[in-house]
Amino acid sequence: MSTLNVNGASQKERKVSALTEFKEVTKKDAESLLSLEFEKLLNTAPESEKQQLNEDFRGFQRLFSKFLKGSGPSVLWDKIERLPENAVRDYASLEPPENSVIKEMLNKLVVVKLNGGLGTSMGCVGPKSLIPVNHDFTFLDLTVQQIEYLNKQYDAEVPLVLMNSFNTDEDTQKVLRKYRGCRIKIYTFMQSRYPRINKESLMPIVSTLNTSETEGWYPPGHGDFYDAFAKSGLLNTLIEEGREYCFVSNIDNLGATVDLSILNSLLNPSKGPHPQFVMEVTNKTNADVKGGTLIQYDGKLRLLEIAQVPKDHVDEFKSVKKFKIFNTNNLWMSLKSIEALVSRQGIDMEIIVNHKHLDIGLNVIQLETASGAAIKDFENAIGINVPRRRFLPVKKTQDLLLVMSNLYSMKSGTLTMNPLRAFPSVPLIKLGDYHFGKVRDFLSRFASIPDLLELDHLTVSGDVTFGKGVSLRGTVIIIANHGDRIDIPAGAILENKIVSGNLRILDH
């Protein structure tokens, strides 16, 4: 029972009030101190960079202010509504366009690839888009081939736009020279450069604008696309050219190709108004339970990410029965809608707080946003439930094994599933990080990529190598214990086998 003081307020209430007041004071203090820090940083910048940096800092301050004000979950679980009919359309219901209008349609399209990431997670230096993924072609090579094929096939002029980060811009620019002879216009723009913040002091960890201090800076996620695209001037230029829609996707998603049926549904809807935003979703499997999903909330279509889910509802969120679809991050948007929303600061994306521990021993936070979260700010937004083939991301070397294998054939930069594969689903592959996690180590362990056409599941752990012409079928588990080495001989056929540390081969 609380004790009342002379003013009638309980000690507990006074304590809560004092804590709230303390938090408010420290927040105000943090905002004003950050402004002072930014002024100091700008004074160390070359005159030619000051305007750009000032814009970046203003963008960061908006995020920072929102981060400080944030309290409680951004989604109240009980307010989630059932998705209305037609909020998510079935891909099979879309009508392909007549051949006679394809050129005109393509000339209204811009393809944007998010190219801000490095290949460090796979042990590579430089932009991830420059890692070879199939027949020595890189992600960027395949993208250029896909669009050039469209332009030649339909006598069209689809441009490619790359959103680079300060980490990837220089190396990407050098490589772009090799595409000069291709029938494709390539534009680039830079996303913002934001300072990493010390978790305790909430202040930038850098004291000068020395670009060699790369650990002090970060690109703020693909939600920065809208502001950075508009700020670059490219958005306005492309609208003036008569472009109407952009197709935005991650450059490491090899399934994210231009789809004429989706484009037709945007430009020539069979009924209702033109959608201003389309998110491609696909059916969840047990490998996708953490992926963001679409919900109806406050009368609008909204992306729900696992970070927004209250802890006691996480299992429900992961349920394939309740939330059957997830976001592929293949997004189609009206260019004029982006322009109008950015000009009035009408895009309000949830902040993702990314905690990192740096090699120099500091705990920092990065404030980021996700581009799909803007769906609620666009008019007539819909989802389209697409086939799984449109989601083929390469995040780890186990994904690389799939796309390098005979499971896929390549034509004009597009990978398609081998028709000899009996099932449309891809095998589940798990490779041990220590021996297979880096691309160089991964490649050194295969004399040739095994035949995976009849594979369902592969787990490899420990010091394992594969000879030439190996076939893996059904469920194969290969585990070399610490200190052991297993060499799978050339021409071996492993079907439903467990291979253990002393090279015993057992039926699975």
From TrEMBL:
Its EC number is 2.7.7.9. It is an enzyme of class 2 (transferase). One of its GO terms (molecular function) is UTP:glucose-1-phosphate uridylyltransferase activity. UTP binds at residues 128, 191, 221, 252, 395. Substrate binds at residue 222. InterPro entries: Nucleotide-diphossugar_trans, UDPGP_fam, UDPGP_trans. Pfam families: UDPGP (PF01704). The keyword Transmembrane does not apply. Keywords: Nucleotidyltransferase, Transferase. It catalyses: alpha-D-glucose 1-phosphate + UTP + H(+) = UDP-alpha-D-glucose + diphosphate. GO terms for biological process: glycogen biosynthetic process; UDP-alpha-D-glucose metabolic process. Belongs to the UDPGP type 1 family. UTP--glucose-1-phosphate uridylyltransferase catalyzing the conversion of glucose-1-phosphate into UDP-glucose, a crucial precursor for the production of glycogen. Homooctamer. This is UTP--glucose-1-phosphate uridylyltransferase. It comes from Leptotrombidium deliense.
